[in-house]
């Protein structure tokens, strides 16, 4: 066929999500609050008061979502790991229920022959790190991120071979919520 496009046999047809945008379960099973939770729960910031509280409920529906991916012929899934679901305050104690969620998600993807690609940071900075250290401008936050990244590499690296460090780095750096106006309207 002259108009056919042939893809190599090893070509990956994938879909992608952000934990905050699809998981929901914003305060379920020990997940900590993120800056996006705070932003969305602050009246007047997000049009119509929309939040990520339930969203697509991927946290509860991931099996059905993976089944849909399989039916669509998807063989790659890029998802982000919610930092505050793993480390509720951004550092120190881990959340075993959050870890188990990602274990189940990853295992089910592999069982369905869908290659997992994980993004470490898709803008869901743990709120406590922001309020205690003012976000990415602090060495403390960078150190906490390194500890978080090392932890998830060890925890999930036996099954995840493809990692993305940051989603759209230029956007969250250029629009970092660290202006005086932003702090005055949101954090006080």
Describe this entry's structure for a reader.
The protein has 188 residues and is α/β, with parallel strands linked by helices. It has a 4-stranded parallel sheet. The chain has a single domain, classed as Glycosidases (TIM Barrel). It has helices spanning 19-22, 35-41, 58-72, 83-86, 96-111, 127-133, 139-156, 169-174, 180-186; strands at residues 14-16, 76-80, 115-121, 162-166.
Please give the structural blueprint.
Blueprint: E1 14-16, H1 19-22, H2 35-41, H3 58-72, E2 76-80, H4 83-86, H5 96-111, E3 115-121, H6 127-133, H7 139-156, E4 162-166, H8 169-174, H9 180-186
Parallel strand pairs: 1-2, 2-3, 3-4
Pattern of helices and strands: EHHHEHHEHHEHH
Q: Oligomeric state of the chains?
A: single chain
What is the CATH top level name? Alpha Beta
| Number of DSSP-assigned strands | 4
Distinct helical segment count: 9
Q: Going by CATH, what is the homologous superfamily?
A: Glycosidases
Strand content: 5-15%
At CATH level 3, the topology is: TIM Barrel
- Average of the residue pLDDT scores: 91
Class from helix and strand fractions: alpha/beta
Strand order of the largest sheet: 1-2-3-4
Number of domains: 1
Shape: globular
List low-confidence stretches: none
Could you estimate the helical fraction of the residues in percent? 40-55%
CATH architectural type = Alpha-Beta Barrel
Distance between the termini: 64 Å
